[in-house]
Specification:
With about 350 residues, the protein is α+β, with helices and mostly antiparallel strands. It has two domains: about 130 residues, 2-Layer Sandwich (60s Ribosomal Protein L30, Chain: A), CATH 3.30.1330.10; about 170 residues, PurM-like C-terminal domain (Phosphoribosyl-aminoimidazole Synthetase, Chain A, domain 2, Alpha-Beta Complex), CATH 3.90.650.10. The chain contains eight helices and 13 strands. The chain is globular.
Length: about 350
């Protein structure tokens, strides 16, 4: 083993032997990319189908703390990028990963992050095929930042998007909301909160596959990350030119999440999620979707929480448990920074 340092030093980003040792022993030994060229050369049978389309996404991850109950920034990066692909109906195939590493970062931490990425990618049937590392001076970053890009293939004949949503469609979520945001809040020392909650971070390819099988006319899907369910629904309602009507009593929330939000004066509809998506399906296919995804670990607690209406186009409203109605607007500002 050539890498003897316990912490990252500036030489690990200098382009010489120290950098090569770090890359080979921490990254490429784990990711095992196809060759060591400056680019990945890729081929998959799915690309040869007539009418198949590529889906491409990119995202950055800067969560603090980098490790939290049920996950870490590496798991977050892989799952988040996969989910951005699957909500459009794509089968994820390949990821890239770029690392900005602060001088002084523990190499043991890097190894744990990389191990999480390998585990999640393998479980999702995805390969991490290329990447990059940069080292910056102490104080110029905050531990490790990761940028991932993903490529997937949308099969012929599948077309999902906000423009396909219709009045009467059911609004479905695949489980309790806000777990990830609540975990990050509780893990940060300034709040002095204790909970046994774990992040909901998960790759949702299986959930989407089950939903598409159960509902051939599935309209659209969106993952509820920053800004939570409320922001995702507002974006979709605006794009569709239709309204969304939610029922508060149907929205699944864990008691711990509800309690944390009451203590801190937060609305759980705006809490970040990393393993939750919202789906729009024709009303007659909605129960089949719930039954299909409930059979999966990532779909436990799935529920129909509302429907699409012609009234109040571009707006989301919620019928409260007390009988009144309120507007669920787009998030203004940020409930909690550095969440993902």
């Amino acid at each position: 083993m050539a890498l003897r340092d316990t912490h990252v030093i500036m030489a690990h980003g200098g382009g010489g032997r120290a950098m090569r040792d770090l890359i080979e022993e921490v990254f490429t030994a784990s990711f095992q990319p196809p060759g060591m060229e400056d680019q990945a050369r890729l081929m998959d049978a799915a690309l040869q189908q007539a009418g198949a389309r590529l889906a491409f996404t990119t995202d950055g991850f800067v969560v603090a703390p980098m490790e939290f109950p049920g996950g870490d920034i590496g798991k977050l990066a892989v799952c988040g990028t996969i989910n951005d692909l699957v909500v459009g109906g794509a089968r994820p195939l390949w990821l890239s990963a770029g690392f900005i590493i602060e001088e002084g970062t523990e190499i043991a931490l890097l190894r744990r992050i990389v191990a999480s990425m390998v585990q999640e990618a393998a479980a999702a049937g995805v390969r991490i095929v290329t990447g990059d590392t940069k080292v910056v001076e102490r104080g110029a970053a905050d531990g490790v930042f990761i940028t991932t890009s993903g490529i997937g293939v949308i099969p012929p004949g599948l077309d999902m998007g906000a423009g396909r949503i219709r009045a009467g469609d059911a609004v479905i979520v695949n489980g309790p909301l806000g777990d990830h945001g609540a975990v990050i809040m509780a893990t940060r020392g300034e709040f002095a909160l204790e909970t046994e909650l774990q992040t909901d971070c998960a790759a949702l390819g299986g959930v989407m596959a089950a939903a598409l099988k159960a509902a051939p006319d599935l309209r659209a899907a969106r993952d509820c990350t920053r800004g939570g369910l409320a922001s995702a629904l507002n974006e979709l309602a605006a794009e569709a030119g239709l309204g969304v009507q939610l029922e508060e009593t149907l929205v699944p929330l864990r008691h711990e999440v509800r309690g944390l939000c009451e203590i801190l004066g937060l609305d759980p509809l705006y809490l970040a999620n990393e393993g939750r998506l919202v789906l729009f399906a024709p009303a007659e296919q909605a129960k089949a979707v719930v039954a299909a995804i409930e059979a999966l670990p990532e779909g436990a607690g799935a529920a129909i929480i509302g429907h699409v209406v012609d009234a109040h186009p571009g707006q989301v409203r919620m019928q409260s448990s007390f009988g009144g109605s309120r507007i669920v607007d787009m998030l203004v500002g940020d409930q909690l920074p550095r969440i993902c």
